Amino acid sequence: MKTMMKIWAAVLLAGALSFVADASDKEKNDGWVPKFYPGLEAGGSVEWIPGGYKGIAPAVRLKWDSGAMKFGVMKNVTTELSGLVDWTISAQVKSEGNYGYAGAAMEFFDEKGRSLGVVSSPKPAVAHSWRRMEWTFSAPRTAKRFAAHLLSLNKEPVLYAKMSVTSKQGRGESQIPFEVAALPAEWNKDWNGGSIRMHNFVDSPLPVMFYVKGRIRELVNPKIEVDVPESLEVREMCSPLGGYFEKFDPPTCSYVTNGERVVRYSFVNPTFLKRLSATKFRIDEGVCIKFVIAPRPECSTEGRIFTIRYRTMDGEKIGDDKSMEMVFDRMPNHFNRSKDFFVFSWNNVDRHFVGDDTANAAANAYEAAGIRSFRRTLPNGAEFARKKELVDLYAKRPVKYIFSGRFGDLWSLKPCGLGKSSVQKLGVRMVVSSDENYAE
C-alpha cells in the first residue's frame, strides 16, 4: 500500500514558512522526512512506494505541484563532524518525464546548532530508467553536524531509492583561499558515468570554461594553472565580462608525461578575480577563464581521449590537482537528423568569442542544434566586452537569431529532430552525448 504525504508550503505575511505534513513514517523510511526551504512558496507531494525500486526496495516519489521548484526529503545525521572527513549522499534515481531534475544538498550546523548555510549540487539531467548517482560534500571547518537533502528541482516527478549517507577520510574544506572548476564537465559526471569529460567538434570548436570561487580577502599571490596537451591548439583565452575583460597571452612552459608533451599556461592574479565569490561559482557572470581548444591539423583524434589538468595556487599553498577529459568528434553531415547526439549551450558566456573566425565556426554547431537565441547582456545587466560586434556577427548568419536583453530567457527554439524533447532549456554547456549516458 502506498503511503502519501501531501505537503503544502506557503510564505506567510510574517515571512515564516508553514506546511502541513504527516511525518509518522519517519522511522520506517530510515529517517528521511519531507524537506521544504524557508522563503520558498513550494508545494508538492511525497509518496513512499513499497517495492517502487524494481519490486525489491521502497522508493520515494517527489511530485511538484506549485510555487518554487525545489523541495524533497531530508535526513538529519547525528554523527559529530571532526577532522578531514567528506560525506557522500548516494541513491538510485530516475525521472518520470522529460524535464525531471534531481539534486542533493547538505545543510551544515555549528556546535550551537546554528546553520552555516546550505551547500547545493548542480541539477543534473535524470534518466528515465534507474541509475545510481552520488554527491560528495566537504564540510566547513566549523561544522559539527549536518542534514542531507535529496531534491526535485523541476516540474516532472523524480524518484529516489536505496538512499544512503556515508563518510570517508577526505580533505575537508580547502585550506587554499580559492579553487577552480571546469564546468559543467565536473558537474556532468553525476550523469555521465562518473567521467569528467566533454565532447567537442573538430571543425566547430566550442569553449571550455574554468570558473573560480574563493575568499578574495585572503589571497596573496593567486595563480591558476591549466595544462593542455601540445597536440591541441588553444585558439582563444579570455575573461569575457565587460569591465574585467582580458585577452590572455600568459607565460607558458612545457613538460613531457607518458610520452606526450604538455603545455602549462599560468594566469597570475587575473583582473576578474575582483569579482570572486566566496561561496559559489558565478556562472552567469563570466567569472572564469574561457579556453577555445581544437586539435591541430596534423593531430589524429579518432579514438583518442585528451587529458587537461588544472589547479590553483596562492603563494606556497597549492590546491587539488584536477583533470578533465576531452574527446573530439566530427559533426555528421546530416547532424539535424541525428538521433544519437545533441548539443546544449550553458549560457551566453560561451558565445562571446574574441575572434570573429572562432565565433562563426562555433555558430555552426549551435545552429545545427537549433540554438538560435543570443542574449546581449547577463541576467544582472552586466555587459560583455564584444557585445555589439557579436550581435552584428550573429545578425549576418544564414539563420535568423532572436536577440534578447537583460530579462530574456535562453531557449533552444528548434531542436531539429535531435532525438530529445521538442524544446530544450539551455542547461548544460556543450555536451555532445549519446543515449548510453542515460543508462542505469
Could you walk me through the main structural features you see in this protein, from its secondary elements to its overall organization?
This protein starts with a strand and ends in a 15-residue tail after the last strand. The chain has helices at 185-188, 356-368, 387-395; strands at 3-11, 17-20, 33-35, 42-53, 57-67, 71-77, 85-95, 102-109, 115-120, 131-138, 145-152, 158-169, 178-183, 197-201, 207-214, 222-229, 232-239, 246-247, 252-257, 260-268, 288-295, 306-314, 317-318, 322-329, 373-375, 402-404, 411-412, 424-425. The strands form six sheets. Strands 2-1-4-5-12-7-10 form a seven-stranded antiparallel β-sheet, with no helix packed on it. Strands 14, 16, 19, 20, 22, 23 and 24 form a seven-stranded mixed β-sheet that branches. The protein is mostly beta strands and 440 residues long. β22 and β23 form a beta hairpin. It has three helices and 28 strands. The model is unreliable at 1-27, 336-341 and 406-440 (pLDDT under 50).
Provide a concise account of the structure shown:
The chain is mostly beta strands and 440 residues long. It is built from three helices and 28 strands.
Write the layout of secondary structure elements.
Blueprint: E1 3-11, E2 17-20, E3 33-35, E4 42-53, E5 57-67, E6 71-77, E7 85-95, E8 102-109, E9 115-120, E10 131-138, E11 145-152, E12 158-169, E13 178-183, H1 185-188, E14 197-201, E15 207-214, E16 222-229, E17 232-239, E18 246-247, E19 252-257, E20 260-268, E21 288-295, E22 306-314, E23 317-318, E24 322-329, H2 356-368, E25 373-375, H3 387-395, E26 402-404, E27 411-412, E28 424-425
Parallel strand pairs: 14-24, 25-26
Antiparallel strand pairs: 1-2, 1-4, 3-6, 4-5, 5-12, 6-11, 7-10, 7-12, 8-9, 8-11, 13-15, 15-21, 16-20, 16-22, 17-18, 17-21, 19-20, 22-23, 22-24, 27-28
